[in-house]
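Handout, section B. The chain below has 271 residues.
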Amino acid sequence: MKKILWSAVLLLAFGLAYWQWRGMEEPVAYQNGYPDLRGQHIVVYVSCRDEVGKAFLELFKDKTGCSYEYLKMTTPEALARIRAEREHPKADIFIGGTCDAHILAKEEGLIEKYVSKNYDAVTDRYKDGDGYWIGIGTSPLSIIVNKERWEKEYQSKGVALPKSYEDLLNPAYRGEVIVSDPNTSGTAYTMLAYLSQRMGSEMTVDFLHRLKANVGEFTINGYTPAQKVAAGEYLLGVNFLNDQLCVLESGFEVLTIIPPQCGWSMDAVSK
């Protein structure tokens, strides 16, 4: 919901940033005060869910007349591509992806500062103080459970629902946990960072070694665990709540559990 509510802020930011980037004069209004970008075209790297990224861009096209094309990739893939294209950028906007990638992009000089007229409408903690990136939504790292399998295979045995990440170490879940790989997924990197901040490095390494015994699959991206748990391939998974709500709203019977002390992250957008 926050992503949808903030889309109006982003639309104007995108439009004005594009004109500023092209070195054009003040744009002519198109619809409801949005810039007239008919005849213009942008290339976007999208690291949020495909349907979310496309919804943003379709709304942008509707409001400004600007056409677009986008490439969907994981957060680390997008950052690596932007790095590789430092001298000859192929894209205009990087949308989605956990904000640590945008922070690194700023530190490495890969993105440009842009402060839109609506910059002050977003709370300070959800944006870069210098105007290099702005948040588009936050989400906690939650545990997703296949409800049908849980009731048939585990509830009758007296196994309790997991309430924390530590509960995933239960030997009863051996081979039934699915998580993403921190080498390729911003979701998993967020969990790794959270555990390190909360437990310290040594305890985090120990925790991950023990968790690995229960993990049946490490996925490339953070959305797949929700999909495979929903399909019943695995009993449990860990990823962002908004991904889990997506499969829940699609009609799959899943349970979402937000641990009392949970990791969370923010997706962002930058130019």
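Note. Residues 139-265 form a domain with the D-Maltodextrin-Binding Protein; domain 2 fold (CATH 3.40.190.10). Compare this with the example in section A.
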